[in-house]
Known about the structure:
The chain is α/β, with parallel strands linked by helices. Helices cover 40% and strands 14% of the residues.
Amino acid sequence: MGAPLGSDSSSSSSSPPxxxxxxxxxxSKARSDRHLNGSGSRYHVTRRRRRHRPTMANSVHVxxxxxxxxxxxxxxxxxxxxxxxxTEVTPQIRSLxxxxxxxxxxxxxxxxxxxxxxxxxxxxxxxxxxxxxHPHPLLxxxxxxxxxxxxxxxxxxxxxxxxxxxxxxxxxxxLAYEVTKATATEISACGVNLMLGxxxxxxxxxxxxxxxxxxxxxxxxxxxxxxLAALKGIRDAGMASCGKHFPSYGNLDFLGSNLDVPxxxxxxxxxxxxxxxxxxxxxxxxxxxxxxxxxxxxxxxxMNVSHACLSDQVVDELLRNDLGFNxxxxxxxxxxxxxxxxxxxxxxxxxAVEAGCDLVLLCRAYDVQLEAIKGLKLGYESGIIxxxxxFTSVRRVLxxxxxxxxxxxxxxxPGISLLSQLHPAHLALSRRAYDDSITVIRDKxxxxxxxxxxHPGEELLLLTPLIKPLPxxxxxxxxxxxxxxxHLAWTNHDNWSHRDRERGAIMSGEGVFREFGKSLAxxxxxxxxxxxxxxxxVRPVHENLINRASCIIIVTADANRNLYQAGFTKHVDMxxxxxxxxxxxxxxxxxxxxxxYDFAMDKSIGTxxxxxxxxxxxxxxxxxxxxxEITPLGTLPGTLRKSKKVLKSRQHWLVEExxxxxxxSGLDELLRAVHRGSAPDLQFLQTTTAATFQLNNQLISExxxxxxxxxxxxxxxxxxxxxxxxxxxxxxxxDNAESVLSHVRAHANPEILELYRFALxxxxxxxxxxxxxxxxxxxxxIIISRQHSPLATYVPALxxxxxxxxxxxxxxxxxMPFATLVLQGLALMGVRQNKSHxxxxxxxxxxxxxxxxxxxxxxxxxxxxxxxxxxxxxxxTSL
Length: 879
């Protein structure tokens, strides 16, 4: 047994806390003085004064804790979460529970073979803890995100569901609730009580982030919506939840080496506007039990942190003080190479606890785990970690355990008996979710379904990359079983060459898509050719098969990070175009089975589908979509989504009852304006009047969109603009125009530049609104046009006999972190100017595609849209 936790004579809790600003300055100054020497038995540190906030949850009253926790060994055991390799209880994990009083376990795919084995393993762990005198059951944590990230696989009892982005592709947040509740219920039946999820990261740089489909998307509000639904599902299943990865894994800069920590370069203000929104909303909901703190660094003018999970600026200040989180903070695994190599595990665990983490994660290495325990004891004995700090974490962990487990529940898991009852309903839910997630981004040549574009007897070619099977999959299970069966006959060389199953997994990569090929062939009842491709590019075997086939399907998996896949696909696309020009039938379909961003913006790929993961369930749904058994209805998540489902939830113009005596003349004027601004061949508009839309039916209430007098800015927009210190001003005339023209010249085409020059010359009827940052640098511009403006000659939508239409035209906002906010701010200032000029309507024109989504969120609706096309051969048909 360890020594009792004594009093900390150097505690500063009796001193009044300094004000927040000076407190932060002092902490950041003190941080540079810290240097822990973990190589010996002593720590050398410049002590710093810590503030202890007098909240109920954080105040430490020794008398209301079990006297057992006065023992240092027991207390330290409760603030550690550890794992091990192996499917059975080892002497090492038993010792950690019995001798070191470990209170929390993390299970991974390396521990789990089946649902029945998992339930048996967890029950054995809990029995060991009970017999060792633990007052509370163990926390048992598991990653079960679905998609490609599952730790438990059992095709007979545990269902596979789409990834977070796959669920979001369905456009239904209620599906996120159903799927997460089903998943949580299944792993809870096996004895797990803490789900490491949901993922709350926002993919601010979606195309280049390895997080990929584990995240919902790049829209913070959408991530929040689906995250809150998932939290409710976990809670309704009786489990505890853990949001991840705070403060964000959604926009990391990777420096290349495993020894380099990925870096967040966004400022706190930028994080607050995007990445932190889902975390803030999850905390405010009161349903988030724990938070996983990432191991990334932060390098920005507002914060400079080497490891987020070791920084009190991130945990104690940002998470606790600013966001108000009072649950359990769990550190990233301190065995990660970049962290352990730089600091040493003894230093790392002390820094994690001092920063405010309540559970310090060490995944698997027993010698490292013992070093961590030793480090925490030395940290306490040296006075670096106080008694109050340890008790605060113990209290939070015990409170979490009380919400999700008890000895009765821990020792009596329902296991297979419950799973067998749930399985039929969950299978149906899984199939429905996967079918609804399949997304067709483009199908220009109408190649789908294959039954409509291919004739009987024509050959189909499937080209797939060599990728590692998912850890929790039937293929991996077969590989491991085969390895175990052959292991006794292996030579020393065999043992060396197969020391890690990664090698065997890569060599068996073709097997990932073999069943998909068979399924597709059966569905078509036709021959299918299948081979793999690698970084070696297009080989003679590929050329021969492409010449034989009428249709080629290329599968990609994260082509943005595996550039050979993108190169191979473009090469085959070029070959097919060349063969088509010679009269051969060469249809090309590209399928992204992980990140949808592989070719989302490359419109030269005419037929492009996404599945969001490459599990067997996803590939079976893909086969059903390709042959026409189901109609794919999924959409791209986040800002790339153009679905009306999302637009419906955003603010629109206010609606009131239509009154002909008041509104008919205004509607007639609007129709005449639309007619004047429309193409000459739309002659029906000439005879269309307000009466055309009137049913004159007493039983039907007719409505219309009201004018600017009743419009208001979207909630929170002004506050967001103020928070990032964007200012706006209005200029007239060429005297003030040089900076504006330079900005437009750099970021827009010559036509827009001429439009700005024209507007600057019309000093009475036109003006330019400029957006600037705090340093006075120009961020964006927009043209304001009053009624009677000569610009109406060139923008017909501004013409009106009623003389009540104002214009805001040609916003020029380059790509940057706050581009959407700048665009919305410019539009808001333009509407305000129009209202001040007594305009009752505003027409916003010359907006490029990327700008329509944020403007739609403000209440603007598309009146007319024009596509700019070139005279390339690909466009001859449409011309």
